[in-house]
Amino acid sequence: MKILILLSRIDQTGVTTNTLDLVSGLIKESNDVYLVTGGPIECNNPRLDAIYDNFKKIGTKVNQFSIPKGNSVQRLNTSFLSILKIMYYILKIKPDVIHAQSPYMSFIPWLMHKKFVSTLHVNDFVKSFKYKNATHLIAISRETRDYAMDLFKYKNEDITIVNHGVSEAFAINMSLEEKNAFKLANNIPLDKVIIGFVGSIEKRKGHDLLLQAVESLDASIKDKIHIIFLGSSKHNNTRPWLDNLIQITNTKDSVTCFDYQDPKKFYDIFDIFVLPSRLEGFGLVVIEAMMNGCCVLRSNTEGAYDQINHGEDGFIFDNNNYQQLAELLKTSIENIPLRLTIAEKGKEKALNKFTIKAMTQGTLHVYNKII
User: Fold this and answer.
1) 233: nearest Cα among 213, 251, 257
2) 33 neighbors 65 (Cβ within 8 angstroms)
3) Beta strand 225-230 with 193-198: parallel, antiparallel or unpaired?
4) What residues contact 262, with CB distance under 8 A and at least 6 apart?
5) In this model, does residue 199 exceed pLDDT 80?
6) Tens digits of per-residue pLDDT, 24-34?
7) H-helix segments, 69-173
8) Angle at 144 between CA 360 and CA 166, to 5 degrees
9) pLDDT tens, 254-313?
10) What is the CA 34 to chain-centroid distance, rounded?
11) Taking each helix axis from N to C terminus, what angle separates 336-353 and 284-292, rounded to the nearest 10 degrees?
12) Rounded Cα–Cα distance for residues 320 and 264 (Å)
């Protein structure tokens, strides 16, 4: 099958990560995949350049257009030329399927009267002239399905839920010696329960809720833990917000912050992973953490009940409820056998349900519906 995927830009978001994983799965299933993208959103960013190179290394046929920049006139001119270029790629490639991973690019195949698939990744997506309803929509969770039906008036039969999947490489863990060496190299204590978070620094991700929960714990419990925040500042202006939160919650000695980088080694040293987000699309980091063998605690935002059976393979707390999070943290820290059992069951579930292969098969099923 010849598949053309529309991705507006390559950045450090779950959409880019999901696209790379999906493309790798599609290519492994002997499909020809063409990526039409604006490329890395930032010039000379090693992390973004590496992602861009990875698309090429796995065999993706990459076709690039220019991302609009500059003043309003320059942006308008670039946008017009880029739209024409994207249309040219579609006409030249003649794909069997067009998949708009970036929904605001969906107006292009719509203008060309082409059938296409689109993925809805988030529930804060808003109506725009650039968005057109797909021939068939992929929703990544039951909440995004309901959101699409409510806001965009999709019919249930025109939507398929395909949960995100992650590489099974996350299930391969470092040895204890390697974990300790990594901790020592990064000034992380060896004798603490490590509570981890992976995500950009922004209020919707709930850093403040995790810190409030930790602040409310008894001193004897707080003395047992260390918190790691892995993630970069959103729009380069939110790190002071996090630094201030750490200061006012008196958690400075118990927190280490790292700029975003490959999270694999960090998952390896996390005992507990927390996603306290106020808004999510699916929460891909939860699946990564589960597959890696972390005990996962997450808010009941989008994707929670697709991912976790509360008390069996993870824990779910109410959105914005740091008191509930604190109780779950207390239980997970003090009840080590329970924590290890939850982690084991979570890993088993992730390997059975949330792999790239499972996601790829679900996506191919959608493609076949519109061919």
Assistant:
1) 257
2) no
3) parallel
4) none
5) yes
6) 999 999 999 99
7) 72-93, 107-111, 142-151
8) 30
9) 999 999 888 999 999 999 999 999 988 788 899 999 999 999 999 999 899 999 999 999
10) 22
11) 110
12) 28
Q: Which part of the chain is CATH 3.40.50.2000? A: 2-165+355-370, 168-353
Q: In the numeric block, which tokens belong to residue 178?
A: 């390697």
Report CA Rg, the chain: 21
Fold of 168-353: Rossmann fold (3.40.50)
H or E segment to which residue 136 belongs: strand 136-139
Question: In angstroms, rounded to a whole number, what is the distance separating the alpha carbons of residues 45 and 49?
Answer: 6
| Confidence bin at 125 (pLDDT 50/70/90) | confident
Taking alpha carbons only, the member of 216, 220, 284, 278 closest to residue 251 is 216
DSSP of 70-83: SSHHHHHHHHHHHH
Place 127 in a pLDDT band, splitting at 50, 70 and 90: confident
- Model confidence band, residue 12 (pLDDT cutoffs 50, 70, 90): confident
Contact 169, 292 (CB under 8 A): no
- Residue 267 CA, chain-centre distance (Å), reads 15
Instruction: State in words which class domain 2-165+355-370 has.
Output: alpha beta
Predicted TM-score (pTM) of the model is 0.85
DSSP 30: T
If you average pLDDT over residues 182-210, what whole number do you get?
95
